[in-house]
Amino acid sequence: MLNMSGLSFRSLTFMLLVAFLLWSSNFEACNARRGRHWRQSRGSSGSLAKKKGKSHGKGNSHHSGGSKPKPPPHKAPPLPTPKPKGDFPPSPPQKGSNGGHSATFNVLDFGAKGDGSSDDTKAFQAAWAAACKVEASKVIVPSASVFLVGPISFSGPYCQPNIVFQLDGTIIAPTNSKAWGGGLLQWLEFTKLRGISILGKGVIDGRGSVWWQDAPFDDPVDDESKLIIPLNSTLEKHPPMPITSQLGRTMPSIKPTALRFYGSVNVTVTGITIQSSPQFHLKFDNCMGVLVHDISVSSPGNSPNTDGIHLQNSKDVLIYSSTLACGDDCISIQTGCSNVYIHNINCGPGHGISIGSLGKDGTKACVSNITIRDVIMHNTMNGVRIKTWQGGSGSVQGVLFSNIQVSEVQLPIVIDQYYCDKSICKNQSSAVALSGINYERIRGTYTVKPVHFACSDNLPCVDVTLTAIELKPLQEQYHLYNPFCWQTFGELRTPTLPPIDCVQIGKPPNNRVQSDYDLC
C-alpha cells in the first residue's frame, strides 16, 4: 500500500509539471505575438497626430496577409484635415479682428468713408463678403459716421449662420434717381440666411420725401377714408399736387422698402431706428422665426404707403416693445402668416394694425393664430382692422385683439370685406372666410365710428366675440356715426359702450360651406 501510494504521488507530480510547462509555453507564444502587434502599431507613429493618421493604414497592410487571424472590426479614427497653404477659408487680406469667439469686420477697414457723401456701397459689400465666410461673425457699422449706401443685397444661401450686423452709425439712401435705375422693390435686403441679427442703436434713413412728392401719380388711397366725412365740406380731401410732380417725375414709380428680409430663418432686429422710408420700413417675406423688439419707426403721418412692419408668408413671429409712427399701417399682416404674437406697441400716427388686405385679384389668403395685445394707439385712422377684397378665397381664423387703448382714433374696430383702393371695384360673391375673431378690453375715444363690421353677403363673419368694449365719442372735425354691422354673427359676452346691437347672436342660418379650394 505504501509503494502504491508513493507511485501515485510521483505520477501526479509528473503530470502537473508537464501541464505547467505546456501552459507556460503557450503563454509566452501569446505574449510574443502580442508584442509584435504592439511594436508594429507603436512603430508607425512618433506622435499622437501621426498615430491617428498612420496606424489605420499599417493595420490594413498587416492584416492583409490572409493566414493570420483578423482582429474584431473597429471604426477608424478620423484623419487629420490637411491645411492648405495660406489663409483658410480663403479671404482677402485680414481686415477684421477677432473678437471673442468670432471675427469682426468693420466697414471702415474695407474702405468706407462714413462722411455722408461718398458712396460706401462697395465697402459694405466687401465687409459682408468677408463676414459671410465665418460663422457667428460680426459686421460693424460704427457710430458717429454717416454712410451713403445704394441698393444692396446681403445674401446667402452659402453664408455661414448666425451673422450679426452691428448697426450703431447711420445709413442713408441715395436721392439721385440714377442710383435706382428703373425702380427697385427694396433698398437694403438680407436674403436666404440662417440666424441673421441686426442689432444696435443706429439709424436707417430712407430719405423718402423725394419719393413721396410723386404720390399723386402712384399711391392708392386707404379705402376706409371713404367712411370719414369732414364736418366742413370745404376741407380739402387731398393736398395740392406738388409742382415737381406736375412737371415731371423726380424718382422712379417703383418705390423701395427700406429693410427687407427674404427666405431667412431665425431673424432678429432690435434697437435700431428706421425712418423716412420711400415705402414700407421693415418687411419680412417667407421668413420663419422672426424676433423684433425695441425698435423705432418714424415717418410723417401723411407719407404714402409707408407701413411700419409688413409681414408676408412668415411664421412664428414675435414683435414687442416698439414705437411705430408712419403714414400707413403700423403693422400689416398679409397672407401666409401664422403664429404671430404682437404686444406692447405704441402706434401713431398711422392707419393702425391690420390683417390684410387679403384676396386681391381673386387670390387665396390664409392667416391664422394671430394675437395682438397691450397696444396704445393715438391719432390713427383705424385701430385694429381686418380688410379683404371681394373675389378672394381662403380664411382668417383664430384672431385675438386684447387690451387695446385708443385715443382720438377715427375707426377703432373694423372688418371690411369690401376693401377697394381703386375708384371702382367689381362686385363678386366669393370672399375670404372670417371666423374666430375676438375683441376684448378695447377702450378709449373715437372721432368717427366705434365699430364698422362689413362682412360678405355670401360668406358672413362667424364667431365674432366682443368683451369689455368701452369707446366714447370725441367730436373733432368729422361727422360721428353709430356702430355698423352687416352679416356679422357671434356673441356679446359683456355689455358694450356704446351698445353694439347690430351683431347677430349665434350662427348664420344659411352659412355656405367652404369648398376644398377655399380651405387653408
Count of alpha/pi helices? 6
Mean pLDDT over all positions: 83
Backbone structural class? alpha/beta
**Shape annotation:** globular
How much helical structure, as a percent, in the residues?
A: 10-25%
Structural features:
520 residues, alpha/beta, 21-stranded mixed sheet, eleven-stranded parallel sheet, 32 strands, disordered N terminus
Provide an overview of this structure.
- By secondary structure, the chain is α/β, with parallel strands linked by helices.
- It has helices spanning 2-43, 48-62, 121-131, 209-212, 215-218, 243-247, and strands at 97-99, 102-106, 115-119, 138-141, 146-148, 152-155, 164-167, 170-172, 186-191, 194-199, 203-205, 257-262, 265-270, 273-275, 282-285, 288-293, 296-298, 309-312, 315-325, 331-333, 337-347, 353-358, 364-378, 382-388, 393-409, 411-416, 433-446, 451-454, 461-473, 484-486, 488-492, 504-505.
- It is globular, with a radius of gyration of 36 Å.
- Mean pLDDT is 83; it is low at 1-9, 25-97 and 234-247.
Short structural description:
The chain contains six helices and 32 strands. By secondary structure, it is α/β, with parallel strands linked by helices.
List the helices and strands and how they pair.
Elements: H1 2-43, H2 48-62, E1 97-99, E2 102-106, E3 115-119, H3 121-131, E4 138-141, E5 146-148, E6 152-155, E7 164-167, E8 170-172, E9 186-191, E10 194-199, E11 203-205, H4 209-212, H5 215-218, H6 243-247, E12 257-262, E13 265-270, E14 273-275, E15 282-285, E16 288-293, E17 296-298, E18 309-312, E19 315-325, E20 331-333, E21 337-347, E22 353-358, E23 364-378, E24 382-388, E25 393-409, E26 411-416, E27 433-446, E28 451-454, E29 461-473, E30 484-486, E31 488-492, E32 504-505
Parallel strand pairs: 2-4, 3-5, 4-7, 5-8, 6-9, 7-10, 8-11, 9-12, 10-13, 11-14, 12-15, 13-16, 14-17, 15-18, 16-19, 17-19, 18-20, 19-21, 20-22, 21-23, 22-24, 23-25, 24-26, 25-27, 26-28, 27-29, 28-30, 29-31, 31-32
Antiparallel strand pairs: 1-2
